[in-house]
Amino acid sequence: MADSKIRVVLVSHGEQSKGMLNTVQMLLGEQTNIAAYSLYPEQTIDDLTKVLREEIEKYGAENIIFLTELKHGSPFNAVVSLTRDYDVYHVTGTNLAMLMTIVLERDFEGATCEGLCEAAINAAADSYVDVRKMLMDSDDDEEDE
């Protein structure tokens, strides 16, 4: 499997980022050029920021999309702190639909980090459904037939 040109870096509190990586690989197969970093209680934001800075130094800010789980959380703040020195692509509020969209579309010809960020946000918006209401609406549609 060839390496994708766009690197995905998942960043979260605890094991969420690693769990999302495991899940996407279970659904889509082994992935390359993707990493998951976690912030644990015994670590500082500076510890996490250092590792993320190393990602940027190795792969280039223009080639990485950072995905964090919670706006204004510590992992979010670690990525935002890097914007002082780098022009980074960063989407927060990550869910599996967003991650799968990026992973599936990042190797399309003409794919860009900016375009993938937009596609991920659209995928997330489409993934939120009040299932109870959806089922009620489905029952109403069946009764109309």
From TrEMBL:
Domain PTS EIIA type-4, residue spans: 5-128
Pfam family of the protein (one): EIIA-man
Keyword terms of this UniProt record: Transferase
UniProt-listed InterPro entries: Bacterial_PTS_sugar_comp (IPR051471), PTS_EIIA_man-typ (IPR004701), PTS_EIIA_man-typ_sf (IPR036662)
Name assigned to this protein: PTS mannose transporter subunit IIA
